[in-house]
Structures are given as structure tokens and as C-alpha cells.
Amino acid sequence: MSAAADLPIASAATASSSIGRLVEEYLRVLGGERGASPHTQRAYARELREFAAWLAASEHATEAASIEHTQIRAYLGALYARGLSKASAARALAAIRSWFKWLARRRLIEQNPAALVSTPRLPKHLPRVPSIEQMNRVVDSIGNDAASWPARDRAILELLYGCGIRNAELTALDLDDIHWANEAILVRGKGQKQRYVPLGDAAAAAVRAYLQERDARLAAEAHGAALRTQALFLNLQLRGLAQGGNARLTTRSVGRIVKRIALLRGLSADVHPHTLRHAFGTHLLEEGADLRAIQELLGHERLSTTQRYTQLTTAQLAAVYDRTHPRAR
């Protein structure tokens, strides 16, 4: 459920207020200087504009400096009253905290009231991931029955699972990001951070096979014209290319591709591109990879994030104990 469905939409009066102006200024900074991803920009814009609209509608505050932590708590209470989950409230609070930190750095407020508001306690769910055998079976069996462009879709799954990259990182890949000589790909992660991820043999073979078909499709579509695009993964109909676009595949399309293949191969209905990222980290850990190495491969800033993305079964923990503890033998 979206907060947008229940909270007042920011009016022209709100937008012209001191709070509204500061929200819009921060959003410009977020997209410019801080280089936040488009997804983060959209989410923060939604959350902060709705917070500003709530303040205006309830007449809790007219200036940023007059906002108190009790009002932020009251806003979270309003979100709960409208049926939003703790996870949704936590996302809203994260955006509000970020805005107040920026205000404090600019010395527009003396104290950060959001620092006094606790993050809603979220239930800890281990990500459910397919087994190694299931993933191998799915990736190795992609055909015309499960994919509209089998070579492309196999390369997509090979990179999502074989490299552990995010959906947005996958769709942002350009041809030049594949460093064949180094057997690696250049990935642009959150906050414009870059990292190199090894390109395994299976993924490399899948990408090469796809590139041959990609070039053939572009040549067939050109009809004598020079149609070129740096985007690695293209949509099926090459939409927009003739009009000067790049025909880049969208994250939404990747989500549909992954779900269709997963369902036809007997996996859970809740499988999505990020599930393959979970599986990447989990399976590396199961096979003995160091947690910090997995952290680097996934591009996590904190090790605690990596720990949430991985899971070990009780049997695996028992096996490690039996193998390593002196009192177990």
C-alpha cells in the first residue's frame, strides 16, 4: 500500500512554503551533487513531499526549524493509521532523517529532531533462495518455451546470478563495461559507486552468444541505416531506437522475464531479480567464500548488510561445528 493513496497531495501553497522550498532544494541536491539513483530520488521525493503536505494540512509547523521530534512521531502514527506497514514507515523516516541531516549541515536548524525518533523494529526475514541445483537447472534450461529471446534472457540470468548484481545495475550496463581481457564487468552501484565483478566462464559464454544475436537484430532492423546503441541489453522490438533512443531494457521488463522463467521451471512465485542476488551471496557462503569477499562482490558498504543477504541452514552450521570445533570430535 502506498502512502500516496492516503496522505494529502502537496498543494501549491505547500510547495511555496519554507518547508516545501527546502524539500525541493534538497531533492535537487540529491540528484545532482550526491548522485542518488533515480529510484532513490523518486522514493525520497514522494516521502518528503507527503511529509511536507501532512505538516501543512495539520498545521503542525510552518518552518523547518520549528519541527519537533514529537511531530515526526505523530506523522509515523498517521502512516500506521492509514494501514502502512512498518517497512513503509521506516522508508519514510529514512528520507526524513536524510533531509534533516542536510538541513543541519547547512545550519538551517540547530538540532536534528529526526535523530530522536527510533526506527520501527522490523521483523528479520531470511531471504528464501533457490538451491544451487535449482539455479543450475533453471539457467541451463532456458528455451523458447520460457523466453521471448532465449539468448538474451539466459545472459540476463547468468549475470544476475553469476555476478550478483542488482537489477538496475544490470540494465545500466553498456557494451564498454564488459572488460573481456580482465574477465570482469564494470558495475555502477548505488550512489554512483563503481566496482569490478568477475565475469565467470558460463556468464561470459552466455553474453557472447547474446551479442551475436544482438548484432544480427540491429543489422536486420537498420535497413541500410546506421543504428547503434551502447546499451548492452535491448528490448525485444528495439523500441525507440529508430527515433534516436537506446532501446535499453527496463528493470520492470527484467522482473517479468525472471518471474516467467522461474514459474515455468517450478520455482516459487515470489522469485524476482533480487532473489538471484540473494542466491549469489548465499551460495558463495555455502561453498566457503569469505564474508568480506562477498561484501566486496555485492558492493555493500557495511558488512551487516551482507550478513542479512546470506543464510546458512542449521545442517550447514552443524557441519562447520563438527569440522572445526575441537570438542566436536
Which tags fit this structure?
3-stranded antiparallel sheet, 329 residues, mainly alpha, 14 helices
Task: Please give a structural write-up.
This protein is mainly alpha-helical. It is built from 14 helices and three strands. It has a three-stranded antiparallel β-sheet with strand order 1-2-3, with no helix packed on it. A hairpin with a 4-residue loop joins strand 1 and strand 2. Helix 4 packs antiparallel against helix 5 and helix 7 packs antiparallel against helix 9. It is globular, with a radius of gyration of 23 Å. The N and C termini lie far apart (53 Å). 33% of the residues are buried. The N terminus is likely disordered.
Write the layout of secondary structure elements.
Elements lengths: L11 H5 L1 H14 L6 H21 L10 H13 L4 H20 L26 H9 L9 H14 L3 H5 L6 E2 L4 E5 L5 E5 L2 H22 L28 H14 L8 H14 L4 H8 L4 H6 L5 H11 L5
Helix pairs in contact: 2-3, 3-5, 4-5, 7-9, 7-11
Q: Catalogue the unreliable spans.
A: 1-16
Strand order of the largest sheet: 1-2-3
| Intertermini distance | 53 Å
Structural class: mainly alpha
Number of helical segments with 4 or more residues: 14
Beta strand count: 3
| Strand residue content | under 5%
Mean residue pLDDT: 84
